[in-house]
Structure formats: structure tokens, C-alpha cells
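re: ur question from earlier - yeah i can do the single chain one, its not a big deal. heres the input i used so u can compare w yours
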Amino acid sequence: MSAGDKVILTCAITGVLTDPKFHRVPVTAEEMADAAEEAYNAGAAVVHCHFREQEPGQGAKPTWDVPVVSEICSAIRRRVPKIILNMSTGVVGPDISGPAACLREIKPELAALNAGSLNYLKTRKDGSWAWPPILFDNPIEKISSFLKVMKENGIRAECECFDTGILRGVGMMRANGLLEDPLEISLVMGVSSGMPAKPAWLPLLLEEMPEGAQWQVIAIGQKEVWDLHRKACGLGGNLRTGVEDTFYLPSGEKTYSNGKLIEALAEVVREQGREVATADEARKLYQLA
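and the output i got, formated as C-alpha cells:
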């Protein structure tokens, strides 16, 4: 079996603002380590992490408090020393001091780089806004600042693309010298105001993919995301799931288990005639080792 037949599975073990009072997402260091171990045992080579406030009764809001982030990452590394740690860096506004300080302290092997701006919108059935419209702003100056921190600390950027223009922009940033090979690209599909979670979009997106880039699909939604995973796997992509992205198994059953979601994703890989990559194999494919 060739390296191209191997599929890197990433587990996004908790969301950004999902309220743990209503949805059982991991928040504490122990819960995050439990989730990472469960995902790793099910086949995940990479764990993607957001970080939450730790005060009792809190946990619904993100934090960039370095001691909190360090405690969570240390717990994950102790519990699952082989897993590849991928840190979120998403922040609204020009001040990146919080995530930058965490990157310098933790030095993960991978970190998400939001590669362009998006009006983050969602409407209810009556047309009213589900939340006040948000500009998720990621201008070139902000991207450059993140890349400088990542380069100084030996961290590989995972370029998250929420729309087709953002994907095309990654190619331009490489041509300009801002981004360097090897490129890691995530197609974020299913955000209401971004690319839809539709399998038919993938062949067109791949036409815009920078040559030689490693790519994965981040499929956000409910039961419909599994057809997208199947299509992505069949076209040679890597895959990501976890309770940040969905609470629903292919059967439509709701789950709060990262392990069950990764088990289902591993089954998709086998159905498509490919094989799940180990963490060591993922490092070689991502050229981290």
C-alpha cells in the first residue's frame, strides 16, 4: 500500500463556543486528555484543540490564558505522547498576543492558520440572525504576524479555507513567498456563510488546490457530512471530525463521543479502500519528522 493510500484522521475534540451546560464537550485538562486518548485509540493521528475558561460554571467561552492552555496541552501530551497536537489560533480583531503567547509556550507541531476573512453569518427559519453578524477578520497583515510566530517556533501552519476565494488566496500567498511548501490545506465546508458541505463541490475545489498541497476536509453539519467525507476520501484527501464539527453519526444518532465519531470516520476510510495512517506515518506525510 502506497503513502497515497494512507489517510490522516484529525479529531477536533471541542468547539469554540458550544455551551457545555447543554452539550457535553470537554473543557477541563482531564476531560481534554480523555477525549484525545479516546480519539487516538479510535484512529486519530492529530488532535485539534480549542481552549475554554476553567472557572466553575463557565467553560462556554474561549481562553488564551497561557497557564490554562499549558495545563491542557501537557495533560494531552502525558496521556497520548504520540499524538500530533494542532492548536487553534482563531481570534477576532488585530490583537494576536493571546494565541501568539500560547504558540510560543506550547510549540505544537501544527497550528491552524485562518487564511482569509469571512462574514460569519447564520439565519433562523424566519430570516432573523441566529447571532449578531461577525466579521472573522484575517487580513494579510494578521496572517503574516501568525506565520512569523509559527516559523520562529518550528510550527507548521494548517491553512483553513472557508470559501473558494480563500483557497485561491493561499496559492497567491505561496507565489508571493508568504507561505512555503509543504502546504497543509483544510477545506472548511458547512459553515452557513462559507462553502456548503456538498460533495459535488470537491472536484471544483481541487482544481483550485495549489499543486502538491496536502489537503483535508473539515465537514460541519449533521448526518449529511458523511457523504462529503466519503467523497473526500475517494478523491485522496485526509479527514477531520469530532464534536467541534458534528454531534451526529452516519446513522443519524446523536453522540458526544469523539471516539465514536473517529471510529465512524475510520470505517469510511476502509470502505473507500484506503488505510488509516498512524501518528508516525502522519508525521512523515506532513513532513514533520
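The domain at 3-285 is CATH 3.20.20.70 (TIM Barrel). not sure if urs matches, ping me
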